[in-house]
Write a structure and sequence with these properties.
5 strands, alpha+beta, Butyryl-CoA Dehydrogenase, subunit A, domain 3, Claudin, 5 helices
Amino acid sequence: MGGGARELAGYLAALAGWVAGLAAAVLPHWRQSSYAGDAIITAVGLHEGLWMSCAAQSTGQVQCRLHDSLLSLEVHIQTCRALMVISLLLGFFGIIVSVVGMKCTKVGEEDPVTKSRIAVAGGVLFILSGLCTLAAVSLYATQVTYEFFRESTIPINARYEFGSALFVGWGAASLSMLGGSLLCCSCPAKERRGQQYHQQSQPSTAREYV
């Protein structure tokens, strides 16, 4: 795969990861009601996310409510919120920086070495974005697992398990880190060596003609 095709593939993968991360952050399905156990309750399904909680009736009606207070939320929810916001910001800047640095665009610098370095910087931003998403989703999943298996008087069918947004978040983190890694592979080692050789050979050639 050529350098330009590799950069384009990495950019598209990272962009898809950023969009998936945005969807995961907004979706209220980070955890959902568990249907395990003997006495299954299917009349009402509860879903909770970082920003709101929803109740789905068996008739198809869904009612959602935003979390009332920021400071009264549990620590892991506040941490996941912060990590997802940081992830989306890093990914947004990565999108802009990568467009400037890709070989297939004519934005910004014309020097191929400089553009490659800018593309690598965009890849690093995407990798950091993916790591933040991975940390947020894994932290939330760890808390859900702990609350599900800990000893409690709450019936097992009234507890929570993984929601679909967690899997979307894991996929988003994987795509972002994969795309960022492909962009980082455009490091211009050969071009940089060739440029240095050209600069070193020019003075000796000039002296010969003098």
